[in-house]
Amino acid sequence: MKNQSISQKSSKPFVIGKFPGFGIIALLFFLYVYVPLIILVVFSFNAGNSATIWNEFGIGWYIKAFANDDIQRSAINSLIVGVTATTIATLFATLSALVMARGGKFRGQTVSYAIIMLPLMVPEIVTAVATLSFFSAIGLQLGLGNVIVAHTVFCIPFAFLPIRARLQGMDDTMEQAAHDLYANDQQAFRYVTLPLLMPGIISGAMLAFIISIDDFIITLMVAPAGSTTLPLYIYGMVRMGITPEINAVSTVMLAVSTLFVTLSYFTGRKK
After folding, report:
1. In a 3-state reduction of DSSP, which class is residue 106?
2. Can you name the CATH fold of 66-268?
3. Three-state SS across 66-87?
4. 75 C-beta neighbours (distance < 10 Å), count
5. Where are the domains of the chain?
6. pTM of the predicted model, to two decimals?
7. Kind plus residue range of the DSSP H or E element containing 203
8. Short-list 202, 201, 257, 199, CA closest to 78
9. Which residue, among 128, 121, 184, 179, has the nearest Cα to 151 in the 3D structure?
10. Each residue of 196-236: pLDDT tens digit?
11. Which range in 171-175, 184-188, 203-207 is most confidently predicted, on average pLDDT?
12. Residue 211: partners with Cβ closer than 8 Å, 6 or more residues away
């Protein structure tokens, strides 16, 4: 009876939430992460000229930010880079995921997977310096195209992960049934695989887009004159002093990032 009691106690799963002090540590962690963001959002609606002293509620800084020609130009550059890099990166990620998940075993598969995921494992500053060195070595001077090329390579693994996860969760019997009904490979992919894979593709594309829009380090390294994106413009504004206008622009970017990450999460979970 004693041994049975000990066995029942040992069979209980370990619950990290019951670890002493876990709740306090978790609370401190969330406060550290989210309180600065809440302060940023609150002071973006400050009608005064100070970014740290509250005066009264107002949206004047948002109006001023949206009317700023430099901010508009930087936002357009960010959208051009984000949309173009996302489209190309998602295409490559989709093809890579199909080869990895549906191409069967092949020599060098593990190495290929590691190469695809390399931008996630290498520190971003190292990737930025290496990209700058490579562009300088080959003499690449495409203006905003330099940023697009760099962002495309960097965004591929972010688009790849949701697509690969979607493929792994798909039942391949649907594709087999399509072949049994005399569909060729192209028809089976177009009418069966692609519609089932589309939530993963959309999720990966949104994740890649928000990574591109928010990227600063790689853009700082490779962007030539006249190719300023919104993160670079915000960085330039911060160097001259923090104002409520910076808070307003940062709040808009935070809202866009949160929206896309949320949509990416729920789209990826769609049955």
Report:
1. coil
2. MetI-like fold (1.10.3720)
3. HCCHHHHHHHHHHHHHHHHHHH
4. 20
5. 15-61, 66-268
6. 0.79
7. helix 194-214
8. 257
9. 128
10. 888 888 888 988 999 999 888 999 888 888 788 888 888 88
11. 203-207
12. 154, 155, 158
